[in-house]
């Protein structure tokens, strides 16, 4: 979608919610690159959602800084440009919809950018098509299933033509099929050059990312490719998370003397190892 | 569609002539009607206007009847208004029992005031049911634009109005759920005495307020994330456009409403 790849750089980011004594994020530094799929993993209260809000400037750091596409999120005049470039989708779409029909909901962002009706129409149609929801364009959002509502929310973000899409646990309340639909959409967007930052507590979703960031009590507990980070069951358990089923099987096999060698995160990888 | 499916303040995205009409014309029409409803002094004037309004609304095919049927609170207000007027207004006594007496003036006032309340509810329900909250905000913003010269934050005010309307169905739905949840745990909202009912309603009100504030925060954050800045430079996918036919019909309707006042 864009010529020059952008990045979101969190530099020594610290954030404390008003009235709280302990920071929700402490000294977080990481670079999220456009065109890559980053998963932010951690248990409840680890600071995942706070990081998501910081990345597009909805909250600004107490210490350190966030540069979103080169713009400092702490500078109020940058807010509008940052939100054009860094779209966000939240966990609960129900309470965040303003449009009376799906297409009006998707059009809300482009309308706020002051685009002409023709350009808005084009963006809405493209976003609806990419999300695979053209058939419900004239329906009222309240009448949709939660999975459909989340797709509408993602379509609304796509219509902004952002460089990055932040997903703040957008799949956590969905059933398996709807989750797969949203993740497929993220993959399609990544193919088009959009950087995805997906906040989740599902390890299987983090396993499909290019890079994983694990947060623990507001600090980064580990970053790296998912195979490297998630295939060690002891490490995953120490972070308060449950290892992936395939990883646990590999662990059991290792205990029985059958070492799998490489990283095992999925059933397919386990199957390939067993055949080798 | 039943009354339980629709609530007052809720927009229905259905294809009716009233839905397609420009929101500014609808607002002008409603304001004119509200003024006329208060100017009408006799029962005949109100009755004639009610017939005119009902004919127009019937032609728009909006499912208003189920909503009006479900508005228990409004009916209670209408009943209380009627009874207070009928029994407490001085005049020629028509019926007397003990210390209670109904007067001719009281009866007449009761009927006209109740009719006014009902007509206002009907008008506002038809407006909100046929106009999307964002369209309503755009219409209001367009009509109130001159106030911006007096430093009135028109776009913000209209956004507050439209979001408030947007929240009403959600609040009603939430309160229904909470009442059911309380009833499942022994609260009696139907047969218990008034003191017990008031006592039982408190645990329902607190979570409703908490939820409303929480939802408002969520919505504000989501709007902020999508570059909403009060609607100053906002364009629309479907820009407002006033048609010739709808303008003629609006003028005709308002003229008829005014004629009723001066002819009857």
Polypeptide structure, described:
The complex is a heterodimer of chains A (276) and B (264). Chain A is of the alpha/beta class. Chain A is 38% helix and 21% strand. Chain A has helices spanning 48-55, 79-85, 102-112, 117-131, 146-158, 176-191, 203-206, 226-230, 233-238, 245-255, 267-275; strands spanning 7-15, 25-33, 37-41, 63-68, 71-72, 86-89, 164-168, 195-200, 211-216, 219-224. A six-stranded mixed sheet of chain A has the order 6-7-8-3-9-10, sandwiched between helices. Chain A has a four-stranded antiparallel sheet with strand order 2-1-4-5. In chain A, a hairpin with a 2-residue loop joins strand 4 and strand 5. In chain A, helix 3 (102-112) packs across helix 4, helix 4 (117-131) packs across helix 5 (146-158) and helix 5 runs parallel beside helix 6. The longest helix of chain A has 16 residues, at 176-191. Chain A is globular. The model of chain A has no long low-confidence stretch (mean pLDDT 91). Chain B has 264 residues and is mostly helical. Chain B folds into two domains: 1-131 and 238-264, no CATH class; 133-233, no CATH class. Helices cover 70% and strands 3% of the residues of chain B. Chain B has ten helices and two strands. Chain B has helices at 17-20, 23-39, 43-60, 64-70, 72-88, 104-130, 133-143, 154-184, 194-225, 244-263; strands at 93-97, 100-103. Chain B has a two-stranded antiparallel ribbon. The two termini of chain B are 38 Å apart. Classes of the chains: A alpha/beta (276), B mainly alpha (264). Chains A and B meet through helix 2, helix 3 and helix 4 of A and helix 7, helix 8 and helix 9 of B.
The portion of residues assigned to helices of chain B is: 55-70%
Structural class of chain A: alpha/beta
Strand content of chain A: 15-25%
If helices are DSSP runs of H or I spanning 4 or more residues, what is the number of helices of chain A? 11
Dominant shape of chain A: globular
Radius of gyration of chain B: 22 Å
Query: What value does the average pLDDT of chain A take?
Result: 91
The 3D shape of chain B can be described as flat
Largest sheet of chain A: 6 strands, mixed
User: What is the N-to-C order of secondary-structure elements of chain A (H for helix, E for strand)?
Assistant: EEEHEEHEHHHEHEHEEHHHH
**CA-CA gap between termini of chain B:** 38 Å
Q: Helical region count of chain B? A: 10
């Amino acid at each position: 979608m864009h010529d020059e790849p952008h990045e979101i750089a969190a530099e020594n980011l610290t954030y404390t919610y008003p009235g709280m004594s302990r920071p929700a994020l402490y000294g977080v530094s990481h670079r999220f690159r456009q065109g890559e799929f980053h998963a932010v993993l951690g248990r409840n209260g680890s600071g995942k959602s706070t990081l998501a809000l910081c990345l597009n400037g909805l909250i600004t750091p107490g210490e350190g800084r966030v540069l979103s596409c080169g713009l400092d999120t702490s500078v109020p005049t940058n807010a509008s440009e940052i939100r054009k470039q860094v779209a966000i989708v939240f966990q609960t779409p129900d309470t965040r919809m303003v449009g009376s029909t799906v297409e009006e909901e998707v059009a809300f962002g482009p309308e706020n950018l002051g685009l002409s009706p023709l350009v808005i129409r084009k963006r809405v149609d493209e976003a609806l098509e990419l999300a695979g929801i053209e058939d419900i364009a004239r329906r009222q959002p309240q009448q949709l299933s939660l999975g459909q509502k989340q797709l509408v929310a993602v379509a609304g973000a796509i219509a902004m033509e952002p460089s990055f899409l932040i997903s703040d646990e957008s799949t956590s309340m969905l059933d398996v099929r709807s989750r797969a639909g949203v993740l497929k959409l993220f993959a399609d967007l990544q193919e088009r050059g959009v950087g995805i930052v997906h906040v989740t507590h599902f390890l299987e979703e983090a396993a499909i990312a290019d890079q994983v960031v694990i947060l623990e009590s507001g600090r980064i507990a580990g970053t790296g490719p998912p195979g490297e980070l998630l295939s060690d069951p002891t490490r995953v358990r120490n972070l308060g998370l449950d290892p992936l089923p395939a990883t646990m099987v590999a662990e059991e096999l290792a205990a029985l003397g059958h070492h799998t060698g490489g990283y095992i995160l999925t059933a397919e990888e386990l199957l390939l190892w067993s055949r080798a | 569609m039943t009354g339980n499916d629709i609530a007052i303040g809720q927009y229905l995205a259905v294809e009716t002539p009233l839905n397609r009409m420009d929101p500014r014309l609808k607002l002008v029409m409603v304001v004119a009607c509200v003024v006329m409803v208060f100017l009408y002094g006799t029962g005949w004037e109100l009755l004639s206007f009610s017939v005119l309004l009902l004919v127009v609304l019937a032609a728009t095919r909006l499912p208003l009847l189920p909503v009006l049927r479900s508005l228990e609170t409004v009916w209670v207000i209408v009943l209380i208004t009627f009874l207070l007027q009928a029994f407490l207004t001085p005049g020629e006594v028509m019926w007397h029992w003990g210390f209670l007496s109904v007067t001719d003036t009281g009866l007449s006032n009761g009927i006209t005031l109740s009719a006014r309340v009902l007509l206002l509810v009907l008008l506002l329900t038809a407006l909100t049911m046929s106009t999307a909250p964002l369209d309503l905000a755009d219409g209001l913003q367009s009509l109130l634009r001159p106030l911006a010269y007096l430093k009135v934050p028109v776009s913000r005010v209209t956004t507050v109005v439209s979001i408030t309307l947007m929240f009403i169905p959600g609040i009603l739905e939430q309160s229904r759920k909470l009442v059911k949840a309380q009833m499942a745990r022994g609260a009696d909202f139907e047969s218990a005495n008034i003191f017990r009912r008031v006592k039982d309603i408190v645990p329902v009100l607190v979570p409703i307020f908490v939820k409303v504030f929480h939802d408002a925060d969520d919505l504000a954050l989501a709007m902020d994330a999508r570059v909403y800045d009060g609607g100053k430079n906002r364009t629309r996918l479907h820009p407002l456009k006033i048609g010739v036919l709808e303008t003629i019909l609006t003028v005709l309707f308002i003229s008829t409403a005014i004629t009723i006042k001066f002819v009857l």
